[in-house]
Protein: Retrovirus-related Pol polyprotein from transposon TNT 1-94
Amino acid sequence: MRVLYPEVSSEVCVASADQSLQLWHERLCHQNKAHVKDILIKYQIKSDVKDSKICDGCCYGKQCRRPFGTRKQSATTPGELINIDICGPMQQQSLGGTKYYVCFKDDFTKYCRVFFMQFKNEIFQVP
Structure:
């Protein structure tokens, strides 16, 4: 058996063409373009950082939407504000045969109750 040892190893740049900011945005899993610019500058990667094209994938994922504003006041006593979320229909039924559920959450205590329903209109009969 003959053992081969590498003679000299060196790092080489295979491609030296400037890449667009949009391409790096996609390569980095659709990160915020300001963060992508910072990464490119930090690692001295040549790129066209003036690219301001809006990403279609981010628009479809609604990442270009502004965040909801923060509430100025929260509840000061239990039961003052109850948040209700209804979810369904689920593709898979639960073991009890239901496809919907409703979640009640007290804003002050953070206490949460979940009720399962077969039909969405059962929300009015939830105990």
